[in-house]
Amino acid sequence: MTDLFGADYSVYVRAARLALMEKGVAHELHPVDVFAPGGPPQEHLKRQPFGKIPALQHGTVTLFETTAILRYVEEACDGPALQPETPQARARMTQIQSILDNYAYKTLVWDIYVERVAKTRGGAPADEVKIASALGLARTIVATLEDLIDPGNFLLGEQLTLADCHAAPMLNLFETADEGKVLLRSAPGLSAWLERFRQRESFRSTEPVPRD
Description:
This protein is α+β, with helices and mostly antiparallel strands and 212 residues long. The protein has nine helices and four strands; from the N terminus they run βαβαββααααααα. The protein folds into two domains: 2-82, Glutaredoxin, CATH 3.40.30.10; 87-204, Up-down Bundle (Glutathione S-transferase Yfyf (Class Pi), Chain A, domain 2), CATH 1.20.1050.10. Helix 4 (87-121) packs antiparallel against helix 5 (128-148).
């Protein structure tokens, strides 16, 4: 059994679960709430010294950092290939993953989704200045991804890759914000891909449990 440590609401935990499921690797998710009072539990800090999620335990191998986990799942486990065969396509996959980590996560998830959707769900006001300040970079991210994807059912054509697993959780949350809906309408290829990916069993079965 493969053990994954983290919270189901985390886009990075969900990315790792998507890769595991698309690869056909049975796994168990062990809840870790890094936002709990007092911070992450000490046993988690032994697996992930920076207190982030997810962390993976596979036999004697312990890993943290989502990109490393995805790459390991792909290369160490049996199942369908989740990386393209050509160097050019693998580089494009890594490029998309890097864009997601370096630009999209903070902008699309924290600055827009959290402010517009998550905070207001609990009754707190959104930080309109933060949202407005994020929109320029959000437009660039969406337009860049739209330009990078290839025609087909997935981001890189007809093969599902680690880039799909990485991108789907972030863009899914982003689209629940009004600003996300508007910006994704300007990217028809990206929007159509997201709608198709939402229909996959891996995505439906990793839907987070609603939080109070």
